[in-house]
Amino acid sequence: MLHLTSLLFGTNAAHAFFRNKFFYAGLFVLLMVTSVLWHSSPKLEPEFMTIFWMDQAAIAAVTLMTLFYAQRITGLRWIMLGLICSIAALAYYLCTASWSRSYPAEHGALHLLTCLSFHTVLGSLGT
After folding, report:
1. How far is CA 90 from CA 14, 21, 86, 95, in A?
2. What pLDDT, on the 0 to 100 scale, is given for residue 76?
3. What is the rounded distance in angstroms from the CA atom of residue 94 to the CA atom of residue 33?
């Protein structure tokens, strides 16, 4: 399931591409690919930890770029962004507090909520 919810980041890549944020779009493609690879691989095998660390680097890069673009948001759009980011943070907390490999819905919800928050940042930017 998580390898499918990872594909949601492709919608962020397309949105960033059409907003002429090509580097940001590339980071979303990288995040999507590494996330799909990680969630499709066996987790207990040491040789797959390289994929894990690549995924973590992609998450960090997208997060930093999102923070960069979030600084450009003005006006009431901050309220919507704050609400969605708060929900994503709560989902992350619940995801890590009740981590279940047999029922990954919490982590899938985290993918969805972060995808929505990235769309909110992109939608709040001017051209």
Report:
1. 26, 28, 6, 8
2. 67
3. 25
Please, what are the averages of pLDDT over each run of 10 residues along the chain (127 residues)?
86 95 96 92 82 92 88 72 72 63 72 86 78
DSSP per-residue string spanning 31-61: HHHHHHHHHHS-TT-GGGHHHHHHHHHHHHH
Domain ranges of the chain: 2-124
Per-residue pLDDT, 82 = 74
Query: Which residues are within 8 A (CB) of 36 and not within 5 positions of it... i.e. 6 or more apart?
Result: 3, 6, 7
- Report yes or no: 61 and 26 within 8 Å, Cβ to Cβ: no
Q: How many residues does the chain have?
A: 127
C-beta of residue 2 within 8 angstroms of C-beta of residue 36 = no
Output the pTM of the full model. 0.82
